[in-house]
Amino acid sequence: GELARLGAIDTAGSGLGGELEGRLGIRGPLRSPELTFDFDRWRLELFGHTLVARPGARIVRRPAAWAIGGLALEEETNGTFFHLNGELHDQDGLALEVRSELSADWLELAFTDLGPDFQPKPYGRLAFDGHLSGPPTLPSLSGRAELLGLSLALPGVEEGLRDLRGTVLFTPYHVDLGRLEGKLAGGQIRL
Fold this sequence. Notes:
The protein is mainly beta.
């Protein structure tokens, strides 16, 4: 049955905040119970972005494993989404399926430590489908990323990188640039 209902989370000044509501349940023997958390509502504020979870997500803690099912976070203003399903085993590692599409302004988070002179003003979209598996100390990532009209302002380059489109396939052992094209400083590039 329901044990508790969680409410607002406030982490002022950290770049992280939001609200979480859901139901915490416990069943099974007290020595090794199964714990569940069913999300009713989750609003996550992350570095200026607001993500809202779809209802129906569940996290389960079983003896020796965690499971995540149907976790879908969406940013309503620009269509960004993250979907997660998978398991984390205490001994064997993890198996996590990730699917996302995000607006390029999320890339600004990756460039924050490059100094105030580098303001890339990213535009466009990125899509990612992947599988993360193996031990947490040495996970293995494989999948596919797509650049969907990505543009970046580059220092010293008048027109920067524009309308970059392409596919990147990756395995734990190599990265394959399947097709990559766009414009750099006004000229066409193709790989």
